[in-house]
Amino acid sequence: MAEGVGLAAAAPDVKEEGMEEEEALILSKLETMALDDLLQFIDNKSRLVRIGASSVLAGLSASRSGRQALIECKGDVIEKIVERINDDHDAALTAILACLVNLCEEEEAAVRMAKAGAGEKTMKKIVGALEVGTRLPDGAPKLLVNISRVFEGRKRMLGYVSDGTSEERKKEILQLLHYFEESRLQKDNDLAFLALFFENISQEVMGANLLCDEGEGFKLAVVAKGLAENNQERQLGAAGTIKNCAFFTELHRAVAEHEDVAALLVLPLVGESSSFEDDDMQGMYPGLASKCRIGGKVTEDKELRRMIYEGLLLFCRSKDGREFLRKTKVIREVHKFEEAFEKPDEDHIEMIERIVEQTMLLDEIVLSTAGEARYYGNIASDASCWIRHVAVPEYWKADKIETLSIYRATTTGSSMVGRRKDIDDL
Questions:
Q1: Checking CA distances to 375, which of 198, 215, 240, 385 falls within 20 to 30 Å?
Q2: Residues 6-18: pLDDT tens digits?
Q3: What 8-state DSSP symbol labels residue 391?
Q4: Do 367 and 373 form a contact (C-beta atoms < 8 A)?
């Protein structure tokens, strides 16, 4: 047996020598080769040929016309490219992932890739590399984000499909969350893109439930920490994930048990320390109160600010959510935001006013201390709105704050799915 193995191992040396001319010939023709012929070489046994063919495909997919040519090509072209996610050579795999990331720009291609299992294969590839401590495949986190942008991708990665893999998918997502948290202190780490992946899967109730599951350690708090970091992907992903989870009112009570989530959500809105008085910070989450005392710079990212407002508005859709916002005292920070800009966006100001009004108008608020009266009174007078159904103490009346009996408000639902929710007069 030993001699047989030795002889078998020696044979490739002879073939390898013969392959050099063939490889050179193929490589010289790759860039001018017809697409149908090119695709035959992405799984060639020669790694140089695979790298060459995959690199040409990556370049082709960088243009709209190139992507369209791949979509319209006869046969299971996209599905065949997806299969190459299993390539064990770094350079060939990097080119394949680049090609697939580009192809996701076209929804038709993204759906086909999702159905071919691109999401599951990529998750497995990332987790496998992280488990053994090897180099993370370039482009893998970005591909995971792009695939999860389409429902078919989210469905398969969350385990909606009845193929018995839902527990396996759940385990892999939890592993990704673990490595994502571990990578927080690492600069220029591609795992930061996973924040956008968590945002995408949280659009589905199964994804939001997983992130808000106390039994799994309430992983929403892990993602939310991105709002305290100086990384755009982590910040946007964190705000978007909280917003998506807030869309499901049945989760508001679970989220309300974690005051740090509300504090982190408004952290990017904290401006100069002179904007905040001691009364504003009493009862506030310690980390947020500390930030207010030190002061900061309000984020200039309009997309991030809008996501924060939308998340706060979605919490206003339930009594649990409104109590959560009042209890954590984040409304003052939201209102103070408009003072940070000489010319703030009008649509942003409108959203701020709606958040302040709905948090204070849709429930009965009983005030027990002068500090609370000043806190809510300042917000009410500053925002030009009134408190509805409030038990008004004598010291409030002295400040000439009145009550309004009827008010109607509308909250905007998740912008990603275009839903709206009307709150009728109570």
A1: 240
A2: 323 233 333 444 4
A3: B
A4: yes
pLDDT digits (tens, 9 = 90+) for 110-152: 999 999 999 999 999 999 999 998 888 899 999 999 999 999 9
Among 372, 362, 426, smallest CA distance to 401 is for: 372
Q: Which long-range contacts (CB under 8 A, 24 or more apart) does 34-41 make?
A: 35/60, 35/69, 35/70, 35/73, 35/77, 36/73, 36/74, 36/75, 39/73, 39/75, 39/77, 39/80, 39/81
Identify the sign of the CA torsion 133, 138, 142, 147.
Answer: negative
Q: Strand pairing partners for 366?
A: 391
Q: Is 107 exposed, middle or buried (0-12, 13-18, 19+ CB in 10 A)?
A: exposed
Q: What is the DSSP string of 306-371?
A: HHHHHHHHHHTTSHHHHHHHHHTT-HHHHHHGGGG-SS--HHHHHHHHHHHHHHHHSS--B--SHH
- 289-325 as b/e: b if 16+ CB within 10 A: bebbeeeeebbeeeebbbbbbbbbbbbbbbebbbbbb
